[in-house]
Amino acid sequence: MNYLNKSAIILTLLLFSTLTLFSQEITEENYLKADKEIWDEYELKMDNLSKIFELHPDKKDSLLAVANELEANTDKKNREAAIKYAAVPSGLKRLYMLRLNIPKDTLRYVFNSLPEEMQKSEYGKSILSHIKSNQIEEGDKYYNFKATDSDGNEFTLANLKGKNVLLLYGGLSCVQEEGRDFLNTYSSTVDKQKFSVVVFYSCANLEELRQLGSEYDLDFIFISDFLGDHSPFKIRYGAQATPTCFFIDEEGTVIIKSTGLPEIELNKLKSKLI
What we know:
The protein is 52% helix and 12% strand. It has helices at 3-21, 28-55, 60-84, 89-97, 104-113, 116-119, 122-132, 176-188, 206-215, 232-237, 263-269, and strands at residues 146-149, 154-156, 164-169, 195-200, 221-224, 244-248, 254-259. A 7-stranded mixed beta sheet has the order 2-1-5-4-3-6-7, covered by helices on one side. The longest helix has 28 residues, at 28-55.
């Protein structure tokens, strides 16, 4: 048995005991209270670190290490709270949002422990779909989902067969102006017959998608399936953080999967696109 399997089993056993111990306390009100306490504590400690840094900028490296540890501990508490309170709506939604950072064996156990109505809820069904499907990773062939572009036309990745595609899950605001300028320059200096940028947004409707498309003066393809968190794209591509980026080559193989904009990797590929 390898280390990862052992870790997953140990984590699962710990979570089993947690769920059993606190089952009588599982309410929506208690989850919202616990969630608020987690993030209030995080913000307070980060604020204190910022104040210390202002007084002692020479301690940057050590303070950064403390901040990283604080973030890791907060993420752990966030996952534990989502698992503990998965039987209430907000807890189940958070569990789905954190699905990529929780072993599937643990998710399956939690799902099987849920009341039937929660299993059949939209987030319950999406968690089960995540568990049952293989998420796209580097080296995999692309998943050909259906969507609609900002002009209202049907879109599939197969429409771009034979081209290199940079597929982004949202995030144009996250990469800020510098990142958008990079993408714009990159796209405008390569052969448009060989390369396209496609940006998937979790929009509620076509009007919202059009507004997002017009917000930036970029010659990209803006798409959505209007299914929000329950999009097959999000589930199959394992996309949650924005931007999550996928570079798909002309053969349809995902050769880059990255949280954040992979500028260095993209620049290395640029010569083949000119």
